[in-house]
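Researcher: Next sequence.
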Amino acid sequence: MDLASRREIDSFWEGVKGSPPDILINNAGIFPFEKFEDLSEDFYRKVMAVNLDSVYGCVRTS
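Model: Next structure:
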């Protein structure tokens, strides 16, 4: 699942409805190996979507 995609997170939770997991470990993240000033805004948004927004999306929906 692409954790940068809220739609895919929601789809995952729809698929486990009725038998949700007992434990949720938010252990996904990406790290850019570039200088901050060289990062594009699109890549920055992807990093935030995976590292921050996906945690909120998984916990809020679970």
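Model: The mean pLDDT is 89. The CA atoms of residues 20 and 27 lie 18 Å apart.
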